[in-house]
Amino acid sequence: MAISFDKALGIHEQAVNVRVQRAEILANNIANGDTPNYKARDIDFQSILQGVQDGQQPLKMARTDAGHSSGLVSPDFAAELMYRIPTQPSVDGNTVDVQEEMARYSKNAVDYQASFEFLNKKFKGLSNAIRGE
Prior knowledge:
Blueprint: H1 5-9, H2 12-31, E1 41-42, H3 45-53, E2 82-83, H4 98-131
Antiparallel strand pairs: 1-2
Helix pairs in contact: 2-3, 2-4
C-alpha cells in the first residue's frame, strides 16, 4: 500500500510555507519602518489556512515574464496582501509601528517553530512505520 504524503502530513506542510512567507512580509515591514509613505502589509494566516483546507492553492503567484521575481516581490502577490491599519499614523505617511511588527514577527516565529515540530513528528512517525517500529 502506497503512502500518501499529502494525507500523512496534513496541513502542516502548507502552514510552514505560509509562516515563512509571512515572516518575509513582516521583515519587509520592519526594514521599511523609516521609509516615508510606506504602507505596512500583512496576510491573514487563518483565511489562507482555511483556503488550503478547502482545496485552494495558498498565495498563488504567476510569473507573466521571465524577468519577474519568483519571490514575494512579484506584483501578482501584492493582491494577496492586506494593508495594516495603523494605531497611530505618522506624519510622513508611514504606517509601520516597529514594535508591533517585531512582536508579530516573534509570534510568527514561535508559530513557525510549532508547525515545524508538528511536521517533524509526522515524519518521525512515518519513518517509524516504514521501519516497523
